[in-house]
Automatic annotation (TrEMBL):
Keywords of this entry: Cell membrane, Membrane, Transmembrane, Transmembrane helix, Transport
Gene Ontology CC: plasma membrane
Record flagged with keyword Transport: yes
TM annotation in the entry: 90-111, 123-145, 191-210, 237-261, 291-317
Domain of life: Bacteria
Membrane-related topology note: Multi-pass membrane protein
Record has Repressor as a keyword: no
GO process annotations (BP): transmembrane transport
PROSITE patterns: ABC_TM1
Protein location: Cell membrane
Name of the protein in question: ABC transporter permease
Main location group: membrane
Length: 324
């Protein structure tokens, strides 16, 4: 039912765009010929009523057909099969480091409440979520690539490098599976700059929520009782305090990971990453309706699956959720 709702919302919003897809796809010269425009609209099914177009779209969708992109002239499913692993590779890289750094610093800041280290971490967190991502991406690219030459430029691999045999579509994983260590390090080095930009924002977000969640737990009776029993500080912090604070933290982690998997448009565009974000940007600017609807469907599925996984993890972390 949720997937049906996603298709309905995506199709409706796409068709509400006040522009002519024939004009965007054909260009000014071809669009001036009524015969060419009529042929294009017939080929794309745009000559039918909107309701009929939706049910035709659903029928094709049930067969695994997302349509053909007007910008690449490839099946949208084929384009997404290439773009999604690129975004997934970047998202996994970012979320792993963000969880380790963000939750770690948030926990430390809460335990050092109102001390100098807490204030310093809060300033860092505020900076991470306040700096515009597109500006940070441009600044990082200019400094570390153009000025210092510490990291490679745009793309997922050097132009002379050959992509590893496709298994998952993620170059680092596929290179490891193929035993191509040079390709692995090349792909990992290209992850550094876009990963740094997205990690700074995600870490800033997780620090704030982790700190707030831990502070709420620190004053509860069962934490005080654990300390009174003479348990070690390590066990009190990790066995009682952090575990009790995990539910709200997991919610933010799920939302952040879903956002990363949905495609970080500006960052991918700056670094020419070739993922969902860049694909969606090109589809939107060229009014490529099949591609836009394909991306919308993928984004909806990403959030549905992410929320389901987070709900399952809730039950593993908190026994009260399992009882309910």
């Amino acid at each position: 039912m949720l997937i049906f709702g996603v298709t309905l919302v995506t199709f409706t919003l796409t068709n509400l765009v006040p522009a002519d897809p024939a004009q965007a796809a054909l260009g000014e010269r071809a669009a001036s010929d009524p015969a060419v425009v009529a042929e294009f609209r017939k080929a794309q099914g745009l000559d039918k009523p909107v309701v009929v177009q939706y049910f035709v779209y659903l029928a094709h969708l049930l067969q695994g057909n997302l349509g053909v992109s007007t910008q690449t002239h490839n099946p949208v499913s084929q384009d997404l099969a290439v773009a999604f692993p690129a975004t997934a590779e970047l998202a996994i890289f970012v979320i792993v480091f963000s969880i380790i750094i963000g939750i770690g610093l948030g926990l430390f800041a809460a335990l050092r409440h109102n001390r100098f280290s807490d204030q310093l971490i809060r300033i860092f967190s505020l900076g991470g979520i306040s700096i515009p991502t597109f500006w940070l991406a441009l600044a990082v690219f200019y400094i570390f690539f153009y000025q210092l030459h510490w990291a490679p430029g745009s793309g997922r691999l050097d132009p002379a490098a050959q992509a590893p045999p496709t298994v998952t579509g993620m170059y680092t994983v596929d290179a490891l599976l193929a035993g191509q260590w040079d390709t692995f390090w090349d792909a990992l080095s290209h992850l550094a700059l876009p990963g740094l930009v997205l990690t700074l924002y995600t870490v800033g977000l997780l620090i704030r929520f982790a700190r707030s969640a831990v502070l709420d737990i620190l004053g509860l009776d069962y934490v005080t009782a654990a300390r009174a029993k003479g348990l070690s500080s390590r066990r009190v912090v990790f066995g009682y305090t952090l575990r009790g604070a995990l539910l709200p933290i997991l919610t933010i982690v799920g939302l952040a990971f879903g956002s990363l998997l949905s495609g970080t448009v500006l960052t991918e565009q700056v670094f020419s990453w070739g993922g969902i974000g860049q694909y969606a940007y090109k589809a939107a600017t060229t009014l490529d309706l099949p591609a836009v609807m394909g991306v919308g469907l993928i984004v909806g599925l990403v959030y549905i699956i992410t929320n389901f996984v987070i709900d399952v993890i809730y039950g593993l972390v908190d026994p009260r959720v399992r009882v309910q």
